[in-house]
Amino acid sequence: MDPKVCVLLLLLFAALSGVPQDCCLSVAQKRLPAKQVQSYKVQEAGKGCDISATVVQVKGRMLCLPHPEGQQWVQKLMRIVDQRQQQ
């Protein structure tokens, strides 16, 4: 195979492999007041990240909390943020 074609295919594969994600590597167990949380997103293990977590934005910083499954306080925090954003 022509070396130029090999290089082109290699570059194409690298471009299509996706953009690296910022992932939580661990979670904090500290409970935050919902009024401090500006937004959140749920991170799922196996979808580009090693662990499942809830990523919250607080004062412009991103913090990692436990995944909402089985965590009542995280579920409540998410409901409050959702309700606030709907108003």
TrEMBL record:
GO terms for cellular component: extracellular space. PANTHER family: C-C MOTIF CHEMOKINE 20, SMALL INDUCIBLE CYTOKINE A. One of its GO terms (molecular function) is chemokine activity. Residues 20-81 form the Chemokine interleukin-8-like domain. SMART domains: SCY (SM00199). One of its GO terms (biological process) is immune response. This is Chemokine interleukin-8-like domain-containing protein. Residues 1-18 form the signal peptide. The keyword Phosphoprotein does not apply. Keywords: Cytokine, Signal.
